[in-house]
Amino acid sequence: MLGSLHESLESYITQEILCQLDTIAQSGSPSAVFAGDIENSTSAEINFEDTKYGSHQPDTSFQHFEAQYPVVILELSYSQKKKDLSRLANEYILGSDADIRVVIGIDVEYKGSKKASVSMWRPRIGVNNVGEKELFVGQTVTDQLFRNDAGNLVPDPQASLQLRLEDL
Predict the structure, then answer these.
(1) CB-hemisphere CA count at 13 Å for 162?
(2) Boundaries of domain holding 44
(3) What is the distance of C-alpha 160 from the center of its chain?
(4) How big is the chain by its Cα radius of gyration, in Å?
(5) Could you tell me which of 168, 95, 166 has the C-alpha nearest to residue 135?
(6) Which residues are bridge partners to 117 per DSSP?
(7) CA distances to 36, 69, 75, 146 from 142, in Å
(8) Residue 102 CB: number of other CB atoms within 10 A?
(9) If you ran DSSP here, which 8-state letter would residue 153 be given?
(10) Distance (Å, rounded) from C-alpha 74 to C-alpha 54?
(11) How many CB atoms lie within 10 A of CB 160?
């Protein structure tokens, strides 16, 4: 069962992303129509063509109405193990053949601490051992702390969660 902290944090992040998309959609810029066509598909089930990646229900996802898969996934590990976030990021990105462009993982400790951190993964292309291009998952933000043990905001002017419109 989801806790109120989990639901509140998920709702806050989702509302912030939707607010920024709405601002772009209302701007009259060349990106406005595109941004207006992205919706919150909440925890809609994702089934990949390659069944080895399984079926998943992310905490929140954002999807352009013409896309096969969501492009941004949000997973909160309030009651999961933190290491599951990396595994999930790999399954989402590789299972979608990089159609999922960003996986955001929020880890909130819930036993004796209110510490919270964010991590982010994106698809990358690298060269394998035989010289061929290969899709892999790169972690672009690693355990960036934003709440300390007492639950207080960790002030860091360099810390931010940034999504680019091209991610969507």
Answers:
(1) 7
(2) 4-167
(3) 14
(4) 17
(5) 95
(6) 107, 145
(7) 30, 24, 14, 12
(8) 22
(9) B
(10) 17
(11) 10
The gap between the terminal CA atoms of the chain, to the nearest Å, is 30
Q: Residue 121 and residue 103: Cα distance in Å, rounded?
A: 5
Residues in the chain: 168
Number of domains comprising the chain? 1
Taking the mean position of all CA atoms in its chain, how far away is CA 28? Answer: 27
Contacts of 151 (CB under 8 A, 6+ apart): 114, 115, 116
Is residue 168 within 8 A of residue 101, CB to CB? The reply is yes
Q: Are the CB atoms for 145 and 161 separated by under 8 Å?
A: no
Distance CA 9, CA 7 (A): 6
pTM of the shown model = 0.85
pLDDT tens-place string over residues 31-75: 888 888 888 877 678 888 888 888 888 988 988 888 888 889 999
Q: 116 near 135, Cβ under 8 Å? A: no
